[in-house]
Amino acid sequence: MTRREDEALAQAAVAALTGQLALAPKPGLPDPRDLSARETRVDHRALRWSAKALAPGLAAMAAAARRTGEATPRLRAELGSIGRCTEHSVGLAGGGHRGALWTLGLLVAAAALDPRARGAEVAAAAKRIAAHTDRRAPRRPSRGSTVSARYGAAGARGEARAGFPHVRRALDALARARNRGATEEQARMDALVTVMSTLQDTELLHTAGPMGLRHVQAGARAVLDAGGTSTDAGREALSSLDADLHARAWSPRGSAGLLAGTLFVDSLPVSTTPRTT
Q1: CB neighbours (10 Å) of residue 150?
Q2: What is the pLDDT of residues 115-147, one digit of tens each?
């Protein structure tokens, strides 16, 4: 693997994140539909802009994995250091994407470790990296880790250490929807609600508690039980869930980050041909 390939992986990850941002309607999540609301328009533009600020850090993570060549404690520590620097850069660009950075960073590093890996193989390589403790990480607990401890939820670290089971489920959902003849947007939306239907989203646990989380999971299952977003009934259920979550100000951000990771893994292998402008 070369520097050009490291950058190609990073660009593929950014494209996956911006692809996730472009989906609409995403229940409880920002999307580009409401251009009449200035706050929504600015927020969504900032999210797209700050997504691009992830690229240098993700390329550096790919390069670190390529140099190390295996999932070691040293690699885990280096990825953590790069991630914290990248968080700072993203904050200067408008903020957001912390959960997506964790997911995409590990998956990009995993793809760099084994350029031939696809699908579940990439998730398994990420699991080997996440199994190590980042001894350089700040000692103070994050909000996500505090919520995980309080409710016994796996959280972002648990998801990674389990080999990203929701990414694997979302990849299966993408394949099923495409095989049914769904459009690409419908397939991606089915993947999102598949994640939402079972994920113990710590953001939702923080804002809505266990009852709220179960309410969101049930709403996502209703979309799938109605046949998914390629059916009229599924789209109606999705619209109802979207209106409900926006009215309650509940945001399943963990599911959004995992969908971005899913779209990245789905995009492999990526082209390393230099882009022309």
Answers
A1: 11
A2: 999 999 999 999 999 999 887 776 776 777 788
* CA-wise closest residue to 260 among 198, 167, 144, 161: 167
SS3 4: helix
Residue 155, judged by CB atoms within 10 A of its CB (0-12, 13-18, 19+), counts as buried
**How far apart, in whole angstroms, are the C-alpha atoms of residue 97 and residue 206?**
17
Q: Which of 95-99, 177-181, 267-271 has the highest mean pLDDT?
A: 177-181
Structure tokens at 116: 């031939």
Q: DSSP label at 25? A: S
pLDDT per position as a tens digit, 157-187: 899 999 999 999 999 999 999 999 999 999 9
Tell me how crowded residue 45 is: count the other CB atoms within 10 A of its CB: 12
Give the DSSP letter of residue 114.
-
